[in-house]
């Protein structure tokens, strides 16, 4: 398949953003700090709240429909930060209107929605960029570059553990789909081999809508094994800027490569804060600019829109495959759920919409 049709953009690159929650603010602030970039539209469902959010974020225009923002010929791209089940509506509308799209991960909440988004991207020949920022984290990217030194790879272990207080917000979506999707994407990127079998194991210890302890095993056609761990049992990190413990360990025939977000970095210890571990790689801002992996991802997107770079991120097809693997993990874990465990949200239904 040929790549997206990108024509050079000589003027300022302008974005509309759909969904105006806390995550949208990260996007707006990061883009506002970039040279030659503007965020000119904010789109939300509620007129009053949308107007208030647009004013707070310094967005000159706002609307309650994607179509209205996309009717502005000066808009080059649309960022979709809605809940997962609304990704398809916003992304397809923007692509059909001839706009490039960044969509938060996971790509969608159902297979049908994901397929529709991939088809819309192919039909429009516009960029559809799933926001998998770890491919733009220099540590994970450096690991990818050095894989040939240890190949063949036999084992990959990825972990992603969060503060338990955050789970009340994020328990709406299964953690295999919402969080472990990052590590599924990395494993597919690193191993470049299809997943042939999955095994999911989950426990619900907090009694919230979805399980808070999640382990998955992926069997790859290459013979490699991938192990995923994502939990919400970390003590609240009152003296940390990270709020999560994550990393990856890759073992091959000739060595081991690993990285972790809470190993090294910058640590402050003051009378006011105590020990403070500062994020220097993911969401780090320096001199008003987003300089971590998030900023690198957005700068790459802008460069692609301007035809200044060849796209190097996760493709829509890869994001769809990662979502399908995550859904298979959910389904497998539900089949082996112990009788004494708390019921899962939608138990007895197809959580992935197949």
Largest sheet: 6 strands, parallel
Q: How many distinct folded domains? A: 2
Percent range of helical residues: 25-40%
Rg computed from alpha carbons, rounded to a whole number of angstroms? 20 Å
DSSP strand count: 16
Question: SSE order, as H and E?
Answer: EHEHEHEHEHEHEHHHEEEEEEEEEHH
CATH H level, superfamily name of the largest domain: Dihydrodipicolinate Reductase, domain 2
Per CATH, the class of the largest domain reads Alpha Beta
Brief account:
The chain contains eleven helices and 16 strands. The protein has 354 residues and is α/β, with parallel strands linked by helices. Helix 5 packs antiparallel against helix 11.
Structural account:
The chain is an alpha/beta fold and 354 residues long. The chain has 2 domains: 13-131, 3-Layer(aba) Sandwich (Rossmann fold); 135-289, Dihydrodipicolinate Reductase, domain 2 (2-Layer Sandwich), CATH 3.30.360.10. The chain contains 11 helices and 16 strands. It has helices spanning 22-32, 47-57, 66-70, 87-96, 111-124, 138-145, 167-170, 175-178, 181-191, 293-305, 316-335; strands spanning 13-18, 37-43, 61-63, 77-80, 100-103, 128-130, 153-163, 195-203, 213-220, 225-234, 244-252, 255-260, 266-270, 274-278, 285-286, 289-290. Strands 3-2-1-4-5-6 form a 6-stranded parallel beta sheet, sandwiched between helices. Strands 8-9-10-7-11-12 form a 6-stranded mixed beta sheet. Strands 13-14 form a two-stranded antiparallel sheet. Helix 4 runs parallel beside helix 5 and helix 9 packs across helix 11. The longest helix has 20 residues, at 316-335. Mean pLDDT is 88; it is low at 341-351.
